[in-house]
Amino acid sequence: MTEKIYVGNGKKRESQYWDFFTLSLKTSELEKYTNKKWYVSIVVNKRKEEDKFWNDLAVTINDYKPKAKENTKEEISVEDIPFR
Q1: Cα 5–chain centre separation
Q2: Residue 36 lies in a domain
Q3: Phi-psi region at 29: left, alpha or beta (left = phi > 0; alpha = psi -120 to 50)
Q4: Domain-located, residue 83
Q5: Cα–Cα distance measured from residue 82 to residue 26, given in angstroms and rounded to the nearest whole number
Q6: Full-model pTM
Q7: Tally of domains in the chain
């Protein structure tokens, strides 16, 4: 497992009508992880405890890379087909 790359913090807020989250992101860190379409994939996790600024969310880079699928296609001949 790789080291988490923290790029910001957040807080859960409550209003008269609904709950919402506010995030503070460090843009200089985000720029390093933008893809070709200028998107950044992030993960927002709830902290075990609030920090000294009452942030209860942690924002990290989503660095998950799916494993390449192996080419598992089998060659099938006409003789392998049960009906003709």
Answers
A1: 11
A2: yes
A3: alpha
A4: no
A5: 61
A6: 0.64
A7: 1
Residue with tokens 């390093």, as numbered in its chain? 32
Range of the domain at 47: 6-66
**Quick one: pLDDT at residue 17?**
92
Q: Are the beta carbons of 66 and 38 closer than 8 angstroms?
A: no
Strand order, beta sheet including 6-14: 19-25, 6-14, 57-61, 42-46
Would residue 50 count as lying in a domain? yes
The helix or strand, by DSSP H or E, that contains position 28, with its residue range, turns out to be helix 27-30
The per-residue pLDDT for range 9-68, each reduced to its tens digit, is 999 899 999 989 999 998 888 888 888 898 888 999 999 999 898 999 999 998 877 777
Residue 44 included in any domain: yes
